[in-house]
Amino acid sequence: MTIETRVDPLTGDWRLIAPARAARPNDSRDAAPVCPFCPGNEHMTPPERMREPAGPDWRIRVVPNKYPVVDPSAGEHEVVIESPRHDWDLRHAGPEKATEVLAAMRARCRALAERWPAIVAFWNYGAAAGASLSHPHSQIVALDQAPPGLDTRWRRAREHHATTGRKLTDDVARTERDDGRRVVADTGGLFVFQPHAAVVPHHTMLMPGDGRAALADASDDALAAVARTLPGVLAALAAVLDDPAYNLVVHAGPAGDPDADRWYQWHLGLYPRVTNYAGLEIGTGLAVNPRSPEETAAVMRSSLVD
Questions:
Q1: Pairing with 26, which of 66, 79, 106, 219 sits 20 to 30 Å away (CA)?
Q2: Whole-Å CA distances, 109 to 195, 229, 253
Q3: What domains can be seen in the chain, in order of their start residue?
């Protein structure tokens, strides 16, 4: 079936119409499902683009998504199978394994950046967050142009730099550090906080300080800093919210644009699925967060330390 990008004439928002995705295997829907990501079922996925290490005892595989959200003429959609273990979870990963996962994502983002200008890497954890298979995996979508939401992020960052000579992300981090109430952790290599205008309870940002705009160009030190801290943040989130579904998104600047390092810093946003998208949100785009980040950051900070 054809995948289409359609534009809402009233808002300018994009809609991806991808009927084939309805046929995706689903752990909760299919009777006695066979997991295509488990060892021995490699034939069930499209031909892989990465395997580490080579041979049958792989630890990570990257394959094209069999049910992509984008037409091949307009982008690519890949799946990073993060472990051969069906019951593995990123929140239990040691620094070495977490670095391995992040490095594989960086390598694939770098390869995709040779062709596509907009790349989004993300994790969907739990059915409420859009995951159809529970086997641990993340995804990378590359697009031939930036959708409106991504373009808005880039435009605001460019305008801030043009006006102040500083990165917007740097100024946000400075403001959060000065306030202190929403800080979760500050390791020197990674700043973790819940933003002043948090979208949902426990909306958490993880911001490296390597000065790179995109995950494709992230430094080894930045990957190591994220790898040391991210599993603990995910474990803390599971503890304080009883293992919620979540989306974890890499917010990156334009791919293949060396000038972007001057005005953008790549970072991660963690978005627990703990609120409903109701009428006000649909009608206005406003997000209603029923808990203040000052309150939730203190809870997360305490759980992370423990």
A1: 106
A2: 26, 22, 12
A3: 4-143 (3.30.428.10), 164-305 (3.30.428.10)
